[in-house]
Protein: Bacterio-opsin activator
Organism: Natrinema saccharevitans
Amino acid sequence: MSIEIADAEDRPEPVTDADADADGTDADASSVRSTAEGGIVAQLRLDHPRLFLAPSLRRAPDVTVEPDYWTEPEPGRTVVFVTAHGTDLEAFEAGLEIDPTVTDPVLVDRYPDRLVYRVTLTDRAVTFTAATAAVGGRLLDCSSCRAGWQVQLRFPDRDRLVSFNDYCRDRDVSVTVDHLRVSDEDDDGVVALTDKQQELLTVAHEEGYFEVPRGISQEELARRLGVSKSAVSQRLRRAIGELCAQTL
């Protein structure tokens, strides 16, 4: 798939105060610098032996982990809350105890279909969220995939995406591109669904989930795919939201 991305000189000139006055627009309506127009959405798979939680994920490939949020309770200490669901949570938990990318793992919540942990990042962990923000990117979605992470990132332009790729290359982080979408009027229409979202939507459609009455429930979809009901619910919501954003 080839995606054409316009160079800077081909893009429309910014609106000046004079232009705004001429067409009756209030030039001072917003003084906030904007990168909302255009941009690139990239669906990537990242892999590295010391990527955040990668050692634990390698021990439990059937477990899916999704970060809830992270915070810095004190300078130099980053705490991350993650939700884990799957069929081998014991192996994942055992991995946390010896994972060099995290320390002080604590089980903070237990649900019938998932567990929530709090971990503290170590200085041996390779991360990508700060690098994403540093080049002006935004994290849209993130979940584990076997030994690494599948992420959906939005960058203001091609150069920022290249900068992020350079960051990963300099740290020997493997980057696999699943989808690219240009987020402007020249959008080629490629919807950046993750592989897991595509699989879920395919099974849901084939089994009549969207029919009335439904041919399959979320619980049955979860059992069919070997994931939790909450994972099915979240993936359906994100996938349908992405489809709506690109077609409506």
Q: What stands out?
A: The radius of gyration is 21 Å. The longest strand covers residues 63-74. The CA atoms of residues 106 and 241 lie 33 Å apart.
